[in-house]
From TrEMBL:
It comes from Oceanisphaera pacifica. Its main location: membrane. The chain crosses the membrane at residues 6-25, 57-78, 90-112, 118-139, 187-209, 221-254, 266-289, 301-325, 332-354, 360-377. This is Potassium/proton antiporter. It is found in: Cell membrane. InterPro entries: Cation/H_exchanger_TM, FAD-bd_PCMH-like_sf, Na+/solute_symporter_sf, RCK_C, RCK_C_sf, Transptr-assoc_dom. SMART domains: CorC_HlyC (SM01091). Pfam families: CorC_HlyC, Na_H_Exchanger, TrkA_C. It is a multi-pass membrane protein. Gene3D superfamilies: 1.20.1530.20, Regulator of K+ conductance, C-terminal domain. Residues 402-483 form the RCK C-terminal domain. Keywords: Antiport, Cell inner membrane, Cell membrane, Ion transport, Membrane, Potassium, Potassium transport, Transmembrane, Transmembrane helix, Transport.
Length: 576
């Protein structure tokens, strides 16, 4: 009984410390995943915790379980609209980019550690993929608002690049141990991993959506159903020799974009499970670390880590993006910097240990250092690098809170909460507001009092509005109520320029109004068409270029249609 109580006590303390450590991360800027890893090391046999844990097979099982839940949650929070601009470059980085990263890192490891070619390439494959947990956690939790092309490419890449890293790792282990022969068998393994993983993920996601639509369950049971289905899908796909990681990510993507009313109860629980998975995973990996053995590899491992950050990742980004897609130099620079390594390299480093490769422990220690240096160097500097390279855009106006009402199974009405904080609507009578169709103010809270939401109610600064509407009208509602509108417009002018014009304005008229000499070939175009001719592929908010002595910036889009354009004089310290 004492052992069970001690286990519960230790588990509870570690979880509480890990959760409270998020406050330290928020205030200090230290990546939270790095803090989880350090807590695990302190709890281990070489730290004050003194916990003896050497089961690599158990750590491998925990790692797969945790990563499956993290990818399921990440897929559910990835909007399908981001695939418009991010899918193709992300797939290129998730395949060709991982191959280049692994190859370059492996060749450097051969030289630094005096390994054979196969062993060096195996080490490169282990650390070759970016980590979904690290990317999702750091990009969403550091208050950054990246332009859609950069953010979507990074998120989709991190969710889809594990199959290539696993394929390379298992292939090289098979070649080293003699269990795999021939190029044909290798290519078949690759196609099987991606093909079965993709088909299983899409079909599994569609099946899960239908199950949620048809089964009337208690709200608290839906998250359990989704989690159980995701783990089942992961296992079945792996048994069919496909990529379980890719399957659960795609299933989450299908489910998250279905707009079911029950998502209101599913998402918060899955988010909590994803956090629990990250905490548990990094604590377990920290427990596995033996500092006495690790420090003997410190210098060569640090050199490999720096080579991965400053040589291999940038080369991979250049090879996988520059020949095929139109990214700016600043976007390429930021994508190169966000080659975050996390749990995946450490989990993959367990593969050689389980296969009985003599160099397995060395690979594990090097992988740990790669993760440590990546989180410390790259993870802690992301906001500064984003500002330096100017890949951020002004944050969009948004409600303080939103929740589905549960009236319709699909395309449900939602409740949006806003605080009146703009002088432009202070004192305005509700009936004088122009609402989108089927949108209404349902309640007005002033202090501790609930006011009637009648047409004669006069709004005042600080009022809390409960607005009923649908998500397709969210942009309009945000522009009406979403925060301090005057401050938002000021930030928009600072970023886009003093003049934000409708995209249907003719270039000839713009030229006359602002004294711009426009070529005859472009004078007949409207602003939207003009921006598309200079676009980096699909236009996104923040795309900009210099022409005719002016800086032209995309200020609003709807799909591939430019709606508004910011205009200002060319200055050397402005976006280019």
């Amino acid at each position: 009984m004492d052992n069970i109580e001690h286990l519960f006590l230790l588990t509870g303390i570690l979880l509480c410390v890990s959760v409270l450590a998020t406050l330290l991360s928020a205030r200090s800027g230290i990546p939270i995943l790095l803090i989880f890893l350090v807590i695990g090391m302190l709890a281990g046999e070489s730290g004050p915790g003194g916990i003896e844990f050497e089961s690599y097979s158990l750590a491998y099982s925990i790692g797969n379980l945790a990563l499956a839940i993290i990818l399921l949650d990440g897929g559910m929070r990835t909007r399908m609209t981001t695939f418009r601009v991010g899918l193709k470059p992300a797939i290129s980085m998730a395949t060709l980019g991982v191959l280049v990263t692994s190859g370059v890192t492996g060749l450097i490891a051969v030289y630094i550690l005096d390994l054979s070619w196969l062993h060096g390439l195996l080490l490169g494959s282990i650390v070759g993929s970016t980590d979904a947990a690290a990317v999702f956690s750091l990009l969403s939790g550091r208050g950054m608002h990246l332009n859609e092309r950069v953010g979507a490419s990074l998120e989709i890449e991190s969710g889809t690049n594990d199959p290539m890293a696993i394929f390379l790792t298992l292939t090289l282990i098979g070649l080293i141990t003699g269990e795999m022969n021939g190029m044909g068998e290798t290519l078949l393994f690759l196609l099987t991993q991606f093909g079965i993983g993709t088909i299983a993920g899409i079909l599994g996601g569609l099946l899960l959506v239908q199950m949620i639509k048809r089964f009337e369950l208690a709200p608290g049971l839906y998250p359990i159903l989704v989690t159980g289905f995701g783990l089942t899908l992961f296992a079945l796909t792996a048994l069919l020799e496909g990529s379980g990681f890719l399957a659960v990510y795609l299933a989450g993507l299908v489910l998250g974009n279905s707009r079911l009313r029950d998502m209101e109860s599913i998402l918060p629980v899955l988010d909590g499970l994803a956090w629990l998975s990250q905490i548990g995973l990094f604590l377990v990996l920290g427990l596995l670390i033996s500092p006495s053995e690790m420090w003997t590899m410190a210098l060569p491992a640090i050199l490999i880590s720096l080579a991965l950050i400053f040589i291999a990742r940038p080369l991979a980004v250049l090879v996988s993006l520059v020949p095929f897609f139109r990214f700016t130099k600043r976007e390429l620079g930021f994508i190169s910097w966000v080659g975050l390594r996390g749990a995946v390299p450490i989990v993959l480093a367990i593969f050689p240990l389980m296969a009985g490769i003599p160099e397995g422990m060395m690979f594990f220690n090097v992988a740990f250092f790669v993760v440590l240096i990546s989180l410390l160097v790259q993870g802690s500097t992301l906001p500064q690098i984003a500002r330096l390279l100017k890949v951020e855009v002004p944050p969009e106006l948004a409600p303080q809170r939103r929740a589905m009402l549960g009236i319709f199974q699909e395309d449900d009405f939602e409740m949006f909460l806003y605080t009146v904080s703009s002088e432009s609507i202070d004192g305005v009578v509700v009936r004088n507001l122009t609402f989108p169709p089927h949108c209404r103010v349902a309640a007005v809270f002033r202090g501790e009092y609930l006011l009637p939401a009648s047409g004669s109610t006069r709004l005042a600064m600080g009022d809390l509005l409960c607005v009923i509407g649908r998500s397709n009208h969210l942009k309009t509602l945000n522009n009406m109520f979403g925060g301090d509108l005057d401050a938002a417009r000021s930030k928009a002018r600072a970023f886009f320029g003093d003049f934000i014009l409708d995209a249907d304005a003719l270039m000839a008229d713009v030229a006359k109004m602002y004294g711009v000499d426009v070529d005859d070939s472009e004078a007949k175009l409207n602003l939207g068409e003009f921006m598309l001719t200079h676009s980096n592929g699909h236009p996104v908010v923040g795309d900009n270029f210099l022409r005719y002595g002016m800086a032209w910036t995309v200020a609003d889009v709807d799909g591939d249609q430019v709606l508004k354009v910011g205009l200002r004089e060319d200055e050397t310290d402005k976006p280019d």
